[in-house]
Amino acid sequence: PHPRSFTGTSLTQNHDEYQKTADWLMSQTRHRPQVAIICGSGLGMLADTLKCQDTFAYADIPGFPQSTVQGHAGRLVFGELKGKSCVCMQGRFHMYEGHSLLKTTFPVRVFKLLGVETLIVTNAAGSLADGLKPGDIMIIKDHVNFPGLVGLNPLSGPNDDKFGPRFPAMSGCYDKGLRCQAMEIAKELGVAGLMQEGVYAMVGGPNFESIAEARLLHRLGVDAVGMSTAPEVVVATHCGLRVFGLSLITNKDTDSVNHEGVLEVGRLRSKTVQQLVTELISRMEINNNNTTNAV
Ligand SMILES: O=P(O)(O)O[C@@H]1C[C@H](O)[C@@H](CO)O1
Ligand SMILES: Nc1nc2[nH]cnc2c(=O)[nH]1
């Protein structure tokens, strides 16, 4: 399809295509992940903490889209973190790259088929709130899915009942228990001063906001704005995954923002984000018994 036709095409994806990718991955790794992590811009180092890694380039995974954005390596990393089996996306897919929304969220349904129970999403975002400055970390308590509000939704098209209902609720889609646990961890790590909860809004990108757009979003109650995450969370919630989300604030409004600066703040805060996520995974309750299979 024409790369610009992503809004109107690919409204269906056969269930077998997700299953084929999941089956292929299960044939290539002995890990059976319980937790999946999607790394935002400049936050790919989260994968480095995984032990006993099995790594796959997206290009080698049947059915996987390709990453095209600098700072998104394009690798899927399986491994163990504090006794939990995890899979980490070093690089995500964005609507502005020309992927259909079904493609941007394809890995989430594959994770579900792998047995994942909890999805952790991270992103880089611009602050619109007075109290949030570059380097701060926002626990996402809710989102505004601007593309979704006008019908650009990965759940558009025939519903796949095997994954979830036609009309899923999105209230409470960012798990309250995990949000509280993360704040407790931040206190223990001595980084509570960097952290607060807020509302993330996804816009289409790839341009950053004009001054008037940033002002509008602020008035609408948005604390941080970015170009991803919401479709992944919609699809995850649809198929029953528990979700936790973090935004690393990389810039304030649109003040001289650029992608290099975004990646730079990611590097600066990588250690803190890594510690928070590692500790959260270490403490989280997991109901399923997915684990790494001894070979
Ligand atoms: O993947 P995320 O949402 O972290 O990426 C943000 C939004 C754009 O892709 C990019 C802009 O610098 O960072
Ligand atoms: N839309 C948007 N995405 C971002 N990603 C990092 N910073 C920003 C921002 O200011 N706006």
Description:
The protein contains 8 helices and 9 strands. The protein has 295 residues and is α/β, with parallel strands linked by helices. The protein has a single domain, classed as Rossmann fold (3-Layer(aba) Sandwich), CATH 3.40.50. It has a 5-stranded mixed β-barrel with strand order 5-8-7-6-9. Helix 6 links the parallel strand 7 and strand 8. The termini are far apart. The N terminus is likely disordered. Belongs to the PNP/MTAP phosphorylase family.
What descriptors fit this protein?
single chain; 295 residues; 8 helices; 9 strands; globular; binds the ligand O=P(O)(O)O[C@@H]1C[C@H](O)[C@@H](CO)O1; binds guanine; guanosine phosphorylase activity; Purine nucleoside phosphorylase; Nucleoside_phosphorylase_d
